[in-house]
Amino acid sequence: SDSQSFAGKTVLITAGPTYEAIDPVRFIGNHSSGKMGFAIAEAAAARGAQVILISGPTSLQTGHERIQLIRITSAQEMYDQVFRFYDTVDVAIASAAVADYAPANVAAQKIKKSDSHLTIELIKNPDILAEMGLRKNNQFLVGFALETENEEENARGKLERKNLDMIVLNSLSDAGAGFGKDTNLVKFITSDGITEFGLKSKQAVAADILEFVQQGTLK
Ligand code: PMT
């Protein structure tokens, strides 16, 4: 794994959650810790890649000299950063848990409590991965799918609709997998078929992903 199999390659990775502001003190977010995406970034850099890591809010740090870490907050900011670089990268891996919706209006002041209920109108965020699929020229494009039902069918749908080369399916119903954990249980889906793995550390899952990407890009 310290072979420099990605030397000369640039890998773009999205990681972590996005936060969508409601007012100056509140947001809509999710439980992604960034661990999966940071593990992929470290593994790619260790294999010689130049890494652009675009991450939502997380306490994680990275010290690797070949990882350029760009911290963003919202889905729109992640979108803007991804497309600053996308045209020039060899591989893109979307492990971020991007909010699909954002408040239509961000209140300028903290919203005051009142006696009645409060409704927040949400508008759709851009689908960053779908846009990467549309704009694909030579990138090897990897998506993630976090499903709670009809998992393989939904993941295959995303593979096709978003024009991906591979999708990493992880399930919220598996113990030890998904948000925040140090381990993950994944299946890789390509147009050739499906490969299942056992429960392992996110570092080991990252190594498996890069192994697959390397084989895929050699084709
Ligand atoms: O960060 P950790 O705590 O380590 O947890 C890791 C993880 C569970 C977040 C990660 O393994 C994972 O599954 N990430 C994708 C989660 C997700 O939002 O999946 P999705 O099925 O909603 O989205 C499908 C794909 O489209 C993903 O690659 C996602 O990054 C991308 N997407 C989704 C919506 C959107 N607006 N833009 C996107 O790019």
TrEMBL record:
Chain positions covered by the region annotation Phosphopantothenate--cysteine ligase: 11-219
CC cofactor note: Binds 1 FMN per subunit.
Record keywords: Decarboxylase, Flavoprotein, FMN, Ligase, Lyase, Magnesium, Metal-binding, Multifunctional enzyme
Catalytic activity: (R)-4'-phosphopantothenate + L-cysteine + CTP = N-[(R)-4-phosphopantothenoyl]-L-cysteine + CMP + diphosphate + H(+); N-[(R)-4-phosphopantothenoyl]-L-cysteine + H(+) = (R)-4'-phosphopantetheine + CO2
Limits of the DNA/pantothenate metabolism flavoprotein C-terminal domain: 7-214
Known EC number: 4.1.1.36, 6.3.2.5
Full protein name: Coenzyme A biosynthesis bifunctional protein CoaBC
Organism field: Marnyiella aurantia
Source organism phylogeny: Bacteria, Pseudomonadati, Bacteroidota, Flavobacteriia, Flavobacteriales
Whole sequence portion shown: 183 to 401 of 401
